[in-house]
Amino acid sequence: MTSQNPIFIPGPTNIPEELRKAVDMPTIDHRSPVFGRMLHPALEGVKKVLKTDQAQVFLFPSTGTGGWETALTNTLSPGDKVLAARNGMFSHRWIDMCQRHRLDVTHIEVPWGEGIPAARFEEILTADKGHEIRVVLATHNETATGVKSDIAAIRRALDAARHPALLFVDGVSSIGSMDFRMDEWGVDIAVTGSQKGFMLPPGLAIVAFSPKAMAAVETAKLPRTFFDIRDMATGYARNGYPYTPPVGLINGLNAACERILSEGLENVFARHHRIAGGIRAAVDAWGLKLCAARPDLYSDTVSAIRVPDGFDANRIVSHALETYDMAFGTGLGEVAGKVFRIGHLGSLTDAMALSGLAVAEMVMVDLGLPVRLGSGVAAAQEHYRQSTVSALRKAA
Protein backbone atom coordinates (compact mmCIF):
# COMPACT_ATOMS: atom_id res chain seq x y z
CA MET A 1 0.00 0.00 0.00
CA THR A 2 1.37 3.41 -0.95
CA SER A 3 1.79 5.95 1.82
CA GLN A 4 0.69 8.69 -0.58
CA ASN A 5 -2.97 7.75 -0.30
CA PRO A 6 -4.96 8.76 2.80
CA ILE A 7 -6.46 5.94 4.82
CA PHE A 8 -10.14 5.64 5.62
CA ILE A 9 -10.07 3.19 8.49
CA PRO A 10 -11.51 4.51 11.77
CA GLY A 11 -8.09 4.50 13.43
CA PRO A 12 -5.19 4.69 13.39
CA THR A 13 -5.83 7.85 11.42
CA ASN A 14 -3.76 9.93 9.01
CA ILE A 15 -0.81 11.60 10.77
CA PRO A 16 -0.11 15.24 9.86
CA GLU A 17 3.52 15.87 8.99
CA GLU A 18 4.03 18.26 11.89
CA LEU A 19 2.89 15.60 14.37
CA ARG A 20 5.03 12.93 12.74
CA LYS A 21 8.01 15.21 13.23
CA ALA A 22 7.02 15.91 16.85
CA VAL A 23 7.01 12.17 17.61
CA ASP A 24 10.31 11.59 15.77
CA MET A 25 12.71 13.19 18.22
CA PRO A 26 16.16 12.47 19.65
CA THR A 27 16.49 10.58 22.91
CA ILE A 28 16.33 12.78 26.00
CA ASP A 29 16.91 12.08 29.67
CA HIS A 30 13.33 11.44 30.79
CA ARG A 31 14.38 12.12 34.38
CA SER A 32 15.51 15.63 33.51
CA PRO A 33 13.40 18.83 33.68
CA VAL A 34 13.09 18.67 29.88
CA PHE A 35 10.55 15.86 30.17
CA GLY A 36 8.36 17.76 32.61
CA ARG A 37 8.23 20.70 30.22
CA MET A 38 6.55 18.52 27.60
CA LEU A 39 4.50 16.32 29.95
CA HIS A 40 2.54 18.94 31.86
CA PRO A 41 1.45 21.01 28.83
CA ALA A 42 0.24 17.76 27.21
CA LEU A 43 -1.86 16.94 30.29
CA GLU A 44 -3.34 20.43 30.31
CA GLY A 45 -4.03 20.26 26.58
CA VAL A 46 -5.99 17.04 27.00
CA LYS A 47 -8.07 18.64 29.75
CA LYS A 48 -9.05 21.45 27.37
CA VAL A 49 -10.03 18.96 24.66
CA LEU A 50 -12.16 17.08 27.23
CA LYS A 51 -13.70 20.35 28.44
CA THR A 52 -12.82 19.67 32.06
CA ASP A 53 -11.41 21.88 34.78
CA GLN A 54 -11.69 19.25 37.50
CA ALA A 55 -10.30 15.97 36.14
CA GLN A 56 -6.79 14.58 36.45
CA VAL A 57 -5.34 13.17 33.23
CA PHE A 58 -3.06 10.13 33.08
CA LEU A 59 -1.04 8.88 30.10
CA PHE A 60 -0.04 5.21 29.89
CA PRO A 61 2.08 3.44 27.25
CA SER A 62 -0.90 1.44 25.95
CA THR A 63 -4.07 1.74 23.88
CA GLY A 64 -7.72 2.41 24.62
CA THR A 65 -8.02 -1.15 25.91
CA GLY A 66 -5.39 -0.37 28.52
CA GLY A 67 -7.39 2.75 29.32
CA TRP A 68 -10.44 0.60 30.05
CA GLU A 69 -8.36 -1.56 32.37
CA THR A 70 -6.98 1.54 34.10
CA ALA A 71 -10.54 2.73 34.77
CA LEU A 72 -11.73 -0.59 36.19
CA THR A 73 -8.75 -1.66 38.27
CA ASN A 74 -8.23 1.69 39.95
CA THR A 75 -11.80 2.11 41.16
CA LEU A 76 -13.42 -1.31 41.68
CA SER A 77 -13.12 -4.46 43.76
CA PRO A 78 -13.87 -8.10 42.86
CA GLY A 79 -17.61 -8.73 42.78
CA ASP A 80 -18.59 -5.07 42.32
CA LYS A 81 -21.66 -4.55 40.17
CA VAL A 82 -21.42 -2.84 36.78
CA LEU A 83 -24.18 -1.79 34.36
CA ALA A 84 -23.54 -1.67 30.61
CA ALA A 85 -25.22 -1.99 27.21
CA ARG A 86 -23.87 -4.28 24.51
CA ASN A 87 -24.53 -2.51 21.21
CA GLY A 88 -21.29 -3.11 19.30
CA MET A 89 -17.90 -4.76 19.32
CA PHE A 90 -16.19 -2.29 21.64
CA SER A 91 -18.91 -2.23 24.28
CA HIS A 92 -18.80 -6.04 24.03
CA ARG A 93 -15.06 -6.06 24.71
CA TRP A 94 -15.36 -3.74 27.71
CA ILE A 95 -18.03 -6.03 29.18
CA ASP A 96 -15.77 -9.02 28.55
CA MET A 97 -12.94 -7.27 30.40
CA CYS A 98 -15.23 -6.64 33.37
CA GLN A 99 -16.15 -10.31 33.51
CA ARG A 100 -12.50 -11.37 33.36
CA HIS A 101 -11.84 -9.12 36.34
CA ARG A 102 -14.55 -10.95 38.28
CA LEU A 103 -16.97 -8.04 38.26
CA ASP A 104 -20.72 -8.66 38.39
CA VAL A 105 -21.97 -7.25 35.08
CA THR A 106 -25.58 -6.51 34.22
CA HIS A 107 -25.65 -5.85 30.50
CA ILE A 108 -28.51 -4.98 28.22
CA GLU A 109 -28.52 -6.53 24.76
CA VAL A 110 -29.13 -3.80 22.20
CA PRO A 111 -29.43 -4.33 18.42
CA TRP A 112 -26.21 -3.34 16.68
CA GLY A 113 -27.11 -0.06 15.03
CA GLU A 114 -28.94 1.34 18.04
CA GLY A 115 -27.59 3.57 20.80
CA ILE A 116 -27.44 3.08 24.55
CA PRO A 117 -31.01 2.99 25.99
CA ALA A 118 -30.82 5.71 28.66
CA ALA A 119 -34.44 5.13 29.71
CA ARG A 120 -33.74 1.45 30.39
CA PHE A 121 -30.65 2.43 32.39
CA GLU A 122 -32.83 4.75 34.46
CA GLU A 123 -35.27 1.91 35.21
CA ILE A 124 -32.49 -0.41 36.36
CA LEU A 125 -30.80 2.27 38.44
CA THR A 126 -34.08 3.32 40.06
CA ALA A 127 -34.78 -0.30 40.99
CA ASP A 128 -31.32 -0.59 42.59
CA LYS A 129 -32.49 0.72 45.97
CA GLY A 130 -29.37 -0.47 47.76
CA HIS A 131 -27.10 1.31 45.26
CA GLU A 132 -25.17 -1.88 44.63
CA ILE A 133 -24.29 -0.83 41.06
CA ARG A 134 -20.94 0.90 41.37
CA VAL A 135 -20.30 1.89 37.75
CA VAL A 136 -22.22 2.58 34.55
CA LEU A 137 -20.24 1.96 31.36
CA ALA A 138 -21.03 3.83 28.15
CA THR A 139 -19.41 3.77 24.73
CA HIS A 140 -19.85 7.27 23.34
CA ASN A 141 -19.11 6.34 19.75
CA GLU A 142 -19.37 2.66 18.80
CA THR A 143 -16.67 2.34 16.18
CA ALA A 144 -17.97 -0.96 14.82
CA THR A 145 -21.41 0.38 13.90
CA GLY A 146 -20.95 4.13 13.47
CA VAL A 147 -23.40 4.82 16.30
CA LYS A 148 -23.16 7.83 18.62
CA SER A 149 -24.89 7.51 22.00
CA ASP A 150 -26.19 10.40 24.10
CA ILE A 151 -23.93 10.64 27.15
CA ALA A 152 -25.83 13.62 28.54
CA ALA A 153 -28.99 11.48 28.53
CA ILE A 154 -27.21 8.78 30.53
CA ARG A 155 -26.14 11.39 33.09
CA ARG A 156 -29.76 12.54 33.29
CA ALA A 157 -30.82 8.91 33.88
CA LEU A 158 -28.36 8.60 36.78
CA ASP A 159 -29.55 11.89 38.26
CA ALA A 160 -33.24 11.03 37.83
CA ALA A 161 -32.67 7.73 39.65
CA ARG A 162 -30.71 9.60 42.37
CA HIS A 163 -28.02 6.97 41.96
CA PRO A 164 -24.40 7.53 43.03
CA ALA A 165 -22.81 5.15 40.49
CA LEU A 166 -19.74 6.35 38.65
CA LEU A 167 -20.06 7.02 34.90
CA PHE A 168 -17.22 5.67 32.75
CA VAL A 169 -17.19 6.64 29.06
CA ASP A 170 -15.22 5.13 26.20
CA GLY A 171 -14.48 8.10 23.95
CA VAL A 172 -11.76 6.40 21.93
CA SER A 173 -13.22 7.25 18.53
CA SER A 174 -14.95 10.48 19.54
CA ILE A 175 -12.66 12.56 21.76
CA GLY A 176 -10.73 15.13 19.77
CA SER A 177 -13.17 14.87 16.84
CA MET A 178 -16.66 15.12 18.34
CA ASP A 179 -17.93 17.32 21.15
CA PHE A 180 -17.14 15.79 24.55
CA ARG A 181 -18.11 17.61 27.74
CA MET A 182 -16.60 15.76 30.67
CA ASP A 183 -17.62 18.16 33.43
CA GLU A 184 -21.00 19.14 32.01
CA TRP A 185 -22.02 15.52 31.43
CA GLY A 186 -20.76 14.39 34.81
CA VAL A 187 -18.36 11.84 33.36
CA ASP A 188 -16.21 10.27 36.07
CA ILE A 189 -13.67 8.53 33.84
CA ALA A 190 -13.09 9.28 30.17
CA VAL A 191 -10.94 6.92 28.08
CA THR A 192 -9.34 7.55 24.72
CA GLY A 193 -6.14 6.83 22.80
CA SER A 194 -3.51 8.61 20.77
CA GLN A 195 -4.29 7.08 17.37
CA LYS A 196 -7.67 8.57 16.46
CA GLY A 197 -8.77 12.15 17.11
CA PHE A 198 -5.30 13.09 18.34
CA MET A 199 -3.85 11.97 14.97
CA LEU A 200 -0.81 10.18 16.43
CA PRO A 201 0.55 6.64 16.16
CA PRO A 202 -0.94 4.07 18.54
CA GLY A 203 0.74 3.77 21.91
CA LEU A 204 -0.89 6.09 24.43
CA ALA A 205 -3.90 5.34 26.61
CA ILE A 206 -5.31 8.69 27.70
CA VAL A 207 -7.50 8.50 30.82
CA ALA A 208 -9.11 11.30 32.84
CA PHE A 209 -10.43 10.81 36.40
CA SER A 210 -12.96 13.12 38.07
CA PRO A 211 -12.54 13.95 41.78
CA LYS A 212 -15.23 11.36 42.56
CA ALA A 213 -13.32 8.71 40.63
CA MET A 214 -10.09 9.70 42.38
CA ALA A 215 -11.80 9.14 45.74
CA ALA A 216 -12.84 5.63 44.65
CA VAL A 217 -9.20 4.73 44.02
CA GLU A 218 -8.51 4.61 47.77
CA THR A 219 -10.94 1.74 48.43
CA ALA A 220 -10.52 -0.26 45.20
CA LYS A 221 -9.15 -3.77 45.67
CA LEU A 222 -8.65 -5.03 42.12
CA PRO A 223 -4.94 -5.62 41.52
CA ARG A 224 -3.03 -3.08 39.45
CA THR A 225 0.64 -2.32 39.06
CA PHE A 226 1.48 -0.99 35.60
CA PHE A 227 -1.85 0.88 35.47
CA ASP A 228 -1.81 2.24 39.05
CA ILE A 229 -2.67 5.92 38.79
CA ARG A 230 -1.29 6.58 42.28
CA ASP A 231 2.19 5.70 41.06
CA MET A 232 1.64 7.79 37.97
CA ALA A 233 0.48 10.80 40.01
CA THR A 234 3.55 10.49 42.23
CA GLY A 235 5.74 10.48 39.14
CA TYR A 236 4.00 13.54 37.67
CA ALA A 237 4.59 15.49 40.86
CA ARG A 238 8.32 14.96 40.28
CA ASN A 239 8.11 15.78 36.54
CA GLY A 240 8.60 12.11 35.79
CA TYR A 241 7.06 8.66 35.36
CA PRO A 242 7.00 5.51 37.48
CA TYR A 243 8.79 3.77 34.60
CA THR A 244 10.23 4.68 31.21
CA PRO A 245 7.77 6.98 29.42
CA PRO A 246 6.98 7.06 25.67
CA VAL A 247 8.66 10.44 25.29
CA GLY A 248 8.09 10.89 21.57
CA LEU A 249 4.36 10.17 21.83
CA ILE A 250 3.95 12.56 24.74
CA ASN A 251 5.76 15.25 22.77
CA GLY A 252 3.44 14.45 19.88
CA LEU A 253 0.38 14.67 22.14
CA ASN A 254 1.44 18.13 23.24
CA ALA A 255 1.74 19.16 19.58
CA ALA A 256 -1.59 17.48 18.73
CA CYS A 257 -3.42 19.39 21.46
CA GLU A 258 -1.83 22.63 20.24
CA ARG A 259 -3.01 21.86 16.70
CA ILE A 260 -6.57 21.01 17.78
CA LEU A 261 -6.89 24.02 20.06
CA SER A 262 -5.37 26.30 17.43
CA GLU A 263 -8.01 25.21 14.93
CA GLY A 264 -10.59 25.70 17.69
CA LEU A 265 -12.59 22.88 19.24
CA GLU A 266 -15.89 24.01 17.75
CA ASN A 267 -14.26 24.34 14.32
CA VAL A 268 -12.83 20.81 14.66
CA PHE A 269 -16.27 19.45 15.51
CA ALA A 270 -17.89 21.40 12.66
CA ARG A 271 -15.31 20.07 10.19
CA HIS A 272 -15.98 16.50 11.23
CA HIS A 273 -19.73 17.05 11.02
CA ARG A 274 -19.43 18.57 7.55
CA ILE A 275 -17.20 15.77 6.24
CA ALA A 276 -19.48 13.13 7.73
CA GLY A 277 -22.46 14.79 6.07
CA GLY A 278 -20.79 14.41 2.68
CA ILE A 279 -20.14 10.72 3.34
CA ARG A 280 -23.78 10.21 4.30
CA ALA A 281 -24.95 12.06 1.18
CA ALA A 282 -22.82 9.70 -0.92
CA VAL A 283 -24.19 6.61 0.81
CA ASP A 284 -27.72 7.80 0.09
CA ALA A 285 -26.86 8.46 -3.57
CA TRP A 286 -25.49 4.91 -3.84
CA GLY A 287 -28.85 3.56 -2.65
CA LEU A 288 -27.26 2.04 0.45
CA LYS A 289 -28.02 2.42 4.15
CA LEU A 290 -25.95 3.06 7.24
CA CYS A 291 -25.79 0.57 10.08
CA ALA A 292 -26.83 3.35 12.47
CA ALA A 293 -30.61 3.14 12.71
CA ARG A 294 -31.52 6.86 12.77
CA PRO A 295 -29.98 10.25 11.99
CA ASP A 296 -29.70 11.19 15.68
CA LEU A 297 -27.37 8.19 16.08
CA TYR A 298 -25.09 8.97 13.13
CA SER A 299 -21.44 9.24 14.07
CA ASP A 300 -19.33 12.11 12.80
CA THR A 301 -16.16 9.98 12.82
CA VAL A 302 -17.07 6.67 11.20
CA SER A 303 -19.81 5.41 8.89
CA ALA A 304 -20.62 1.70 8.77
CA ILE A 305 -22.31 1.09 5.41
CA ARG A 306 -24.60 -1.88 4.87
CA VAL A 307 -24.22 -3.84 1.64
CA PRO A 308 -26.99 -5.80 -0.13
CA ASP A 309 -27.96 -9.13 1.40
CA GLY A 310 -25.82 -11.98 0.15
CA PHE A 311 -22.87 -9.77 -0.74
CA ASP A 312 -19.70 -10.04 1.35
CA ALA A 313 -18.63 -6.53 2.38
CA ASN A 314 -15.09 -7.75 2.99
CA ARG A 315 -14.68 -7.97 -0.79
CA ILE A 316 -14.95 -4.17 -0.98
CA VAL A 317 -12.20 -3.70 1.58
CA SER A 318 -9.82 -6.24 0.05
CA HIS A 319 -10.42 -5.07 -3.55
CA ALA A 320 -9.86 -1.43 -2.59
CA LEU A 321 -6.54 -2.29 -0.98
CA GLU A 322 -5.29 -4.69 -3.64
CA THR A 323 -6.38 -2.69 -6.69
CA TYR A 324 -6.35 0.96 -5.67
CA ASP A 325 -4.08 1.06 -2.60
CA MET A 326 -6.88 2.51 -0.48
CA ALA A 327 -7.76 1.29 3.03
CA PHE A 328 -11.32 1.07 4.35
CA GLY A 329 -12.52 -0.66 7.51
CA THR A 330 -14.02 -4.13 7.68
CA GLY A 331 -17.12 -5.07 9.64
CA LEU A 332 -16.63 -6.51 13.12
CA GLY A 333 -18.53 -8.99 15.24
CA GLU A 334 -22.21 -9.28 14.42
CA VAL A 335 -21.88 -7.01 11.37
CA ALA A 336 -18.78 -8.72 9.92
CA GLY A 337 -19.28 -9.15 6.18
CA LYS A 338 -22.46 -7.06 6.33
CA VAL A 339 -20.87 -3.61 6.40
CA PHE A 340 -17.73 -1.83 5.36
CA ARG A 341 -16.59 1.23 7.25
CA ILE A 342 -15.35 4.60 6.14
CA GLY A 343 -13.41 6.37 8.86
CA HIS A 344 -13.65 10.15 8.55
CA LEU A 345 -11.83 11.51 11.58
CA GLY A 346 -8.61 13.18 12.56
CA SER A 347 -6.51 14.76 9.84
CA LEU A 348 -9.04 14.88 7.01
CA THR A 349 -10.40 17.47 4.57
CA ASP A 350 -13.31 17.62 2.15
CA ALA A 351 -10.95 16.92 -0.75
CA MET A 352 -9.44 13.90 0.97
CA ALA A 353 -12.92 12.55 1.72
CA LEU A 354 -13.86 12.90 -1.96
CA SER A 355 -10.87 10.76 -2.96
CA GLY A 356 -12.06 7.97 -0.66
CA LEU A 357 -15.60 8.16 -2.01
CA ALA A 358 -14.33 8.04 -5.61
CA VAL A 359 -12.34 4.88 -4.89
CA ALA A 360 -15.24 3.28 -3.02
CA GLU A 361 -17.43 3.87 -6.09
CA MET A 362 -14.88 2.31 -8.44
CA VAL A 363 -14.59 -0.72 -6.18
CA MET A 364 -18.34 -1.26 -5.97
CA VAL A 365 -18.74 -0.92 -9.74
CA ASP A 366 -15.84 -3.35 -10.26
CA LEU A 367 -17.60 -5.87 -8.02
CA GLY A 368 -20.93 -5.56 -9.80
CA LEU A 369 -22.93 -3.60 -7.26
CA PRO A 370 -25.64 -1.33 -8.72
CA VAL A 371 -23.74 1.91 -8.11
CA ARG A 372 -23.25 4.59 -10.75
CA LEU A 373 -19.79 6.11 -11.03
CA GLY A 374 -19.79 9.70 -9.83
CA SER A 375 -23.13 9.55 -8.04
CA GLY A 376 -21.83 9.55 -4.49
CA VAL A 377 -18.97 11.91 -5.28
CA ALA A 378 -21.40 14.41 -6.84
CA ALA A 379 -23.71 14.22 -3.82
CA ALA A 380 -20.79 14.82 -1.45
CA GLN A 381 -19.47 17.66 -3.62
CA GLU A 382 -22.82 19.39 -3.46
CA HIS A 383 -22.94 18.96 0.31
CA TYR A 384 -19.45 20.39 0.73
CA ARG A 385 -20.15 23.27 -1.65
CA GLN A 386 -23.35 24.23 0.13
CA SER A 387 -21.69 23.92 3.54
CA THR A 388 -18.83 26.18 2.44
CA VAL A 389 -21.17 28.78 0.95
CA SER A 390 -23.28 28.76 4.12
CA ALA A 391 -20.20 29.19 6.32
CA LEU A 392 -18.91 32.07 4.19
CA ARG A 393 -22.27 33.84 4.41
CA LYS A 394 -22.29 33.52 8.19
CA ALA A 395 -18.75 34.84 8.39
CA ALA A 396 -19.72 37.86 6.28
From TrEMBL:
<dbReference type="GO" id="GO:0004760">
    <property type="term" value="F:L-serine-pyruvate transaminase activity"/>
</dbReference>
<dbReference type="InterPro" id="IPR024169">
    <property type="entry name" value="SP_NH2Trfase/AEP_transaminase"/>
</dbReference>
<dbReference type="Pfam" id="PF00266">
    <property type="entry name" value="Aminotran_5"/>
</dbReference>
<dbReference type="InterPro" id="IPR015424">
    <property type="entry name" value="PyrdxlP-dep_Trfase"/>
</dbReference>
<dbReference type="InterPro" id="IPR015421">
    <property type="entry name" value="PyrdxlP-dep_Trfase_major"/>
</dbReference>
<feature type="binding site">
    <location>
        <position position="341"/>
    </location>
    <ligand>
        <name>substrate</name>
    </ligand>
</feature>
<dbReference type="InterPro" id="IPR000192">
    <property type="entry name" value="Aminotrans_V_dom"/>
</dbReference>
<protein>
    <submittedName>
        <fullName>Aminotransferase class V-fold PLP-dependent enzyme</fullName>
    </submittedName>
</protein>
<feature type="domain" description="Aminotransferase class V">
    <location>
        <begin position="38"/>
        <end position="287"/>
    </location>
</feature>
<dbReference type="InterPro" id="IPR020578">
    <property type="entry name" value="Aminotrans_V_PyrdxlP_BS"/>
</dbReference>
<dbReference type="GO" id="GO:0019265">
    <property type="term" value="P:glycine biosynthetic process, by transamination of glyoxylate"/>
</dbReference>
<dbReference type="GO" id="GO:0008453">
    <property type="term" value="F:alanine-glyoxylate transaminase activity"/>
</dbReference>
<dbReference type="InterPro" id="IPR015422">
    <property type="entry name" value="PyrdxlP-dep_Trfase_small"/>
</dbReference>
<keyword id="KW-0032">Aminotransferase</keyword>
<keyword id="KW-0663">Pyridoxal phosphate</keyword>
<dbReference type="InterPro" id="IPR054863">
    <property type="entry name" value="AspGlyoxATase"/>
</dbReference>
<feature type="modified residue" description="N6-(pyridoxal phosphate)lysine">
    <location>
        <position position="196"/>
    </location>
</feature>
<keyword id="KW-0808">Transferase</keyword>
<comment type="similarity">
    <text>Belongs to the class-V pyridoxal-phosphate-dependent aminotransferase family.</text>
</comment>
